[in-house]
Amino acid sequence: MSGTVRWGVLATGGIATAFTEDLRSMPDTEVVAVASRTDASAQAFAERFGIPRAYGSWAALAADDEVDVVYVATPHSAHREAAALCLEAGKHVLCEKAFTLNAREADELVKLARDRGLFLMEAMWTYCNPVVRRMTELVRDGAIGEIRTVQADFGLAGPFGPEHRLRDRALGGGALLDLGVYPVSFAQLLLGEPDRVQADAVLSPEGVDLHTAMLLGWSEAGASALLNCSLVADTPQTAAVTGTKGRIEFPRGFFYPERFVLHRPGHEPEEFTAGTGDGAGTAGLRGMQFEQAEVVRALRAGETESPLVPLDGSLAVMRTLDAVRDRIGVRYAADGITRG
């Protein structure tokens, strides 16, 4: 693919707004169409951002011949339906996280994309962040020795009422899929899929998790991860990786960081930030430009999967999230079993 990469945005909520605002800073890209379930919502979004075409149906966007890649920004309960619709229409797809409601749905999307030879990527912007990429390089090069522990948390104080989407089981509500996906993905970026999963949670009357604590284990690596997510507590939102020769600490906002600090015995603490030209912390941008740049790079290279956000890794994260939900008793209709 050469020339301008033409994007379609599917859904018009807050995450779609943030994504579109960042995308306008990207060279040789353009949002050419937007879709919502209603004409009014699509038209309002199109007028706000100067998008030439607005559709009141997802299918119309998927059928637009002038769209190269679609960003799926619906609640995760609709990710499988929306992404599959676009893939079946021959569109490349960037799909928000959590990738789907469960591993079965994720596997279906991955198989569909691979069968069609189309690009598919989970929008795990953390993996594309240059500061996180620098951290993984240091860990791979042995800067902290062998990893022994990972700690990460992401909690919001709310309050979120029973009517809020985060507490709506029909929309895949709960802290785990919306917030917990970040700590889990962070741990698995470094250690891969765990072979032991323990969890405890406080559930809402609607049957979604308000707060979840996870303990993941990797027997062969001799490592463990202590992770938390919450809809009822403003947690530090930090992360730390400890190895046999040192540790790395991320400040608040670890999932879109601008810096981290490396601590090693016998050395002064070393702070690492994005290098010149990386664009981390660029004024007015949310950090989504890095995943957008990776999609554009991959499409122009003719790649159907990103090495930064590999599909097998997204599948592994979904399997862990399924295991956590199994431990805490959260079920969605897509699982084939409903709670209560």
List the helices and strands and how they pair.
Layout: E1 5-10, H1 14-23, E2 29-35, H2 39-49, E3 53-55, H3 58-62, E4 69-72, H4 79-88, E5 92-95, H5 103-116, E6 120-122, H6 125-128, H7 130-140, E7 147-155, H8 175-191, E8 196-203, E9 209-218, E10 223-230, E11 239-243, E12 246-250, E13 259-263, E14 270-273, H9 289-301, H10 311-328
Parallel strand pairs: 1-2, 1-4, 2-3, 4-5, 5-6, 7-10
Antiparallel strand pairs: 7-11, 8-9, 9-10, 11-12, 12-13, 13-14
Helix pairs in contact: 4-5, 5-10, 8-10
Report on this structure:
With about 350 residues, the chain is an alpha/beta fold. The protein contains ten helices and 14 strands. The strands form two sheets. An eight-stranded mixed beta sheet has the order 8-9-10-7-11-12-13-14, with helices on one face. A hairpin with a 6-residue loop joins strand 13 and strand 14. It is globular. It starts with a strand and ends in a 12-residue tail after the last helix.
Q: How many angstroms does the end-to-end distance come to?
A: 50 Å
Tell me the fraction of residues in β-strands, as a range: 15-25%
Annotation field: number of helices: 10
Low-confidence stretches: none
> Radius of gyration from the CA trace?
20 Å
Q: Biggest β-sheet: count, sense, barrel?
A: 8 strands, mixed
What's the SSE pattern?
Answer: EHEHEHEHEHEHHEHEEEEEEEHH
Return the structural class.
alpha/beta
